[in-house]
Amino acid sequence: MLLQVRASPTFLPSTSSSTSSSAQAPAPSPFLGKSGQRRGGPVSLAAAASPAPHRGVARRSVMAAAGAAPAAKLEDADALIDSVETFIFDCDGVIWKGDKLIDGVPETLDLLRSKGKRLVFVTNNSTKSRKQYGKKFETLGLSVDEEEIFASSFAAAAYLQSIDFPKDKKVYVIGEEGILKELELAGFQHLGGPTDGDKKIELKPGFYMEHDKDVGAVVVGFDRYFNYYKVQYGTLCIRENPGCLFIATNRDAVTHLTDAQEWAGGGSMVGAVLGSTKQEPLVVGKPSTFMMDYLAKKFGITTSQICMVGDRLDTDILFGQNGGCKTLLVLSGFINSSVLTLIYALLI
Ligand SMILES: [Mg+2]
């Protein structure tokens, strides 16, 4: 089987990215990309082409940008595959949309595994733990090991471990179950999360809201049960507990809760806490290089041997570029609505 491209001319502008992972590390974070700041200059999609015909069993829209080199459409998939040993896949919009598997994914993953490539799945969605994501892959008929999955919920716990966050301190969570489970697995005390989802502030004259002075970090991720109680609690911890960290699993503007439309993403929750604290968060998800550095170390691979596959320029592709990887933009997800059918990759 061969991954090919049927494409009209299109391009991405070069990002002239500095891909070193040792610069711009803001204290106290040991990783790059604090608050998701772009390190490679503006990234935008500029494409103009006529629609190509639908063909093949796995119509995938693909553009490629090799490291810091000028981006271009993928002409030789075999050359790309041969040039790297690991493919990192984003999940939402690349592997699935909502609970629907995207066409051609099983064949593509099988093809890459048959060629001996290591596959890793990275998602900014923090609502599930690695174990829960493993079950989702299984439900969709994909055989993926838990060790191959890196969710931002896991990244939050891994980051706290990386800085030796004191075990006698607590973590306040604005987010869902995935973050709690990963914190538990890492041995950290936590409070908040779903149990605070139905709490309300009932103001009376002189009302004073208590908060736990032992909270040393507030982790904010996507939260369908976000409310004012959580914002106030997290704000009190960050503003009043000396040294309290503000950690964001991601700052995604939108997410794919369903395949019918885009939904307000984790960035909306992070933005609320940023607004009340006036503090920038430490971002552990894409495009911060924390997860890239983590898995490169874990698997003992150099980032130049990695190809990052994603559907978003501002998270996935920037994540790959920040890490010094090759990058591959697929138009099956986030970008799809704006430049649908400009380019096609066919699995035949
Ligand atoms: Mg995505």
Automatic annotation (TrEMBL):
Residues 1-52 are annotated as: Disordered. InterPro entries: HAD-like_sf, HAD-SF_hydro_IIA, HAD_sf, PGP_euk. Its EC number is 3.1.3.18. Keywords: Acetylation, Chloroplast, Hydrolase, Phosphoprotein, Photorespiration, Plastid, Transit peptide. One of its GO terms (molecular function) is phosphoglycolate phosphatase activity. It catalyses: 2-phosphoglycolate + H2O = glycolate + phosphate. GO terms for biological process: photorespiration. It is an enzyme of class 3 (hydrolase). Residues 7-26 have a biased composition (Low complexity). It comes from the Eukaryota. It is found in: Plastid, Chloroplast. GO terms for cellular component: chloroplast. The keyword Chloroplast applies. Photorespiratory enzyme that dephosphorylates the 2-phosphoglycolate produced by the RuBisCO oxygenation reaction. Belongs to the HAD-like hydrolase superfamily. CbbY/CbbZ/Gph/YieH family. This is phosphoglycolate phosphatase. It comes from Setaria italica. The gene is LOC101783973.
